Amino acid sequence: MLNKVVETFEKAVADVPDGAVIMIGNFAGPGGTPFYLIRALCQQGAKELTIIANTAGGIGLTLDFDDHRILFENRQVKKVIASFPFSTSPSRPSPAEKQILAGEVELEILPQGTLAERIRAGGAGIPAFYTPTGFGTVIEDGKETRDFDGRPCLLELALKADYAFVRAYKADTMGNLVYRGTQRQFNPIMATAARVTIAEVDEIVDAGELDPEVIITPGIYVNRMVKVTEDPSFPRNLDRVFWAKRT
Which of 132, 164, 191, 244, by CA, is between 20 and 30 Å from 4? Predict the structure, then answer.
């Protein structure tokens, strides 16, 4: 039986090359962000990366933690595809914001639903789709348009990646993943849309121990897993005991 567990985060990201396209699960806080994988990639040093994520990191929320902001600080990113690339505070611009405005990093900005659907389409093998979202705005620039029942729509292409970094609560040795709380944001769809999916998880159990009803990402999509062995320096959203009873 294939065991997908990798001993360290450093080993898990060791083969990420310069120029890789990487999806990073995140939303608006640390609960669903694979920050240990991000830290390892920062130390590994791959350059000219394209990052696909909901934000560009460091958006100025109350909890400060090492999200993909540090990849911009380390000058590893050449392009970001995101819905919320700038800081929530104009007086505290993020590293990505500064680099984007200086012309040092390319930005492709997308409505959040379009971003999610482009990723989902990539994982489902759907090459493109039409959506009315963004018509008549800067999002329309350079895109094919078509009317459906008198409503103009934009053609949006599916998004795929070389790697997906995802955060899950629990996994078994075959790579089946269980999420909790805010981990159920971009992580499940990103896990399906990359050539190599790497998961950081709180707990790993033997194959067969997870209740099939709570598995969200089947192991067929997951290539590597690393167990978190240190207690993070911020509170988790939900009580572990509650989820332990369900899984």
Answer: 244
Distances, alpha carbon 67 to alpha carbons 42, 56, 93, 129, 209, in Å: 10, 9, 15, 31, 31
DSSP state of 125: T
Please tell me the pTM assigned to this model: 0.90
- Note whether 172 and 207 are within 8 A (CB): yes
Query: Which contacts (CB < 8 Å, 24+ apart) does range 238-245 have?
Result: 238/180, 238/181, 240/202, 243/169, 243/170, 243/178, 243/180
Tokens of 128: 């493109």
Domains defined along the chain, listed by start:
9-246 (3.40.1080.10)
CB contact at 8 A, 145 and 152: yes
